[in-house]
Write a structure and sequence with these properties.
Layout: H1 2-13, H2 16-35, H3 40-76, H4 79-86, H5 90-123, H6 128-155, H7 159-184, H8 193-202
């Protein structure tokens, strides 16, 4: 709980969390307004699909930056050195840091999507099961890319290196891996399709 309060104070005072969160809020509202023009029986499903496609681009980038820079800040302020010297091991610190970031980001984004569901219910044909799938999927995306961001923050030594690593990782998962799969697709046949499928679905976005 101490780590959670410490992380919340650091994140709430910074601009990264609120900038990423405001991007999600603004784009979500625009998509909701656009979905209201669709037929009522299809509007909510199209709203969730459009929102998820947007989140596939934004959530990995936001999660990577928030989590990686949260760890880099600990290094720059020397709090990582103090904590691991006096109180606990580096592994224990990473576990508590990871848990704190996951709770804060998931709690904040889930709260917004629950509020958005109330707004959508007032104007669209709401489907609770579809919304639950959407919420679970976005939560899993947050968890995965928060952990990748923490890994990047732990191996990088300065901010410029971290920015480059974060942008490359985002580009890798969002664009480059799909391009590689498209390049390999002509060579997929009945014999090697299981192997191809394993690697395809290891990508968190798939």
């Amino acid at each position: 709980m101490t780590y959670l309060m410490k992380e919340w104070k650091e994140q709430s005072r910074g601009k990264g969390l609120w900038l990423g969160f405001s991007m999600i809020v603004i784009i979500s509202l625009f998509i909701l307004l656009e979905s209201r023009t669709l037929p009522s029986e299809h509007g909510f499903t199209m709203f969730l699909l459009s929102l998820y496609e947007m989140n596939m681009l934004l959530i990995p980038l936001i999660s990577l930056f928030i989590s990686s820079f949260a760890l880099m800040q600990e290094k720059e302020l020397k709090t990582l050195l103090i904590l691991t010297t006096k109180k606990e091991s580096y592994v224990s610190f990473l576990i508590k840091k990871s848990w704190s970031i996951q709770v804060i980001t998931i709690g904040l984004f889930a709260s917004w999507y629950l509020l958005l569901a109330i707004l959508a219910k007032a104007s669209l044909d709401f489907n609770g099961l579809h919304f639950l799938y959407f919420l679970i999927t976005n939560t899993v995306l947050l968890i995965i890319f928060n952990q990748i961001g923490l890994f990047l923050g732990s191996i990088c030594t300065h901010r410029m290196q971290l920015v480059g690593a974060t942008i490359f990782t985002w580009f890798l998962f969002v664009f480059l891996i799909d391009l590689i799969f498209l390049y390999l697709l002509p060579w997929v046949n009945d014999d090697n399709v299981p192997i191809f499928s394993v690697f395809f679905f290891l990508d968190p976005l798939h």
